[in-house]
Amino acid sequence: MPKSTFDFIVSRLASQVCRQDTKYRKAVPPDVKVGAVIHRLVIGHNYFHVCDRFGIGESTVQEIMREGVEAIIVELGPEYLKWPSTSEMIKVSNGFQLRSGLPNVQGAIDGTFIRIKAPPSKEVAIDYYNRKGYHAIVLKVINDTDGCFLDISCGMPGSTNDKRVLRNRSFLLGSPEVIC
């Protein structure tokens, strides 16, 4: 990623991720937070690698990930994460058909877990314990043929089944009657 692009992203997210130093510890600078979030989302390295690479603790990385993804959705989402127009959707559909031979595909959807520290309350913690054996929140994305995000949803408890995650948010495909 060019430095100018990174600087632009940091400037847009800084108001959401900036914290004040306390007498007990220094705040992680916004550029380090944004770098860690981008690194984790793009490269997919585990938390230990991100901790080592950016010199921050594991619980801090988990907090930064939640905060960073939320900042991306709030600050950049309305401008960059919008459902395509009808003509753009036809282009996306044609792209999927060329690549896969499948007609009328309008997006690729996938999800993953973002590991979190167990909530202190056992009653709440059980909701976040996922099928892979750790506490997490769910991240779901829809991409077009170029890998650009069409939609992002994050924050449901890790125990939430896939069907509920998909139904949590409706994606209108040209008509209110057609919900994916």
TrEMBL record:
Requisite cofactors: a divalent metal cation
What keywords are assigned to this protein?
A: Hydrolase, Metal-binding, Nuclease, Nucleus
Keyword Hydrolase belongs to the record: yes
Source organism, top-level taxon: Eukaryota
What does UniProt give as GO cellular component? nucleus
Q: Where in the cell is it found?
A: Nucleus
Q: What InterPro entries does the record point to?
A: HARBI1-like (IPR045249), HARBI1_dom (IPR027806)
Question: What GO molecular function annotations does the UniProt record carry, in alphabetical order?
Answer: hydrolase activity; metal ion binding; nuclease activity
Keyword Magnesium tagged: no
* Protein family membership: Belongs to the HARBI1 family.
Q: What is this protein called?
A: DDE Tnp4 domain-containing protein
> What is the protein's species of origin?
Riccia fluitans
Classification of source organism: Eukaryota, Viridiplantae, Streptophyta, Embryophyta, Marchantiophyta
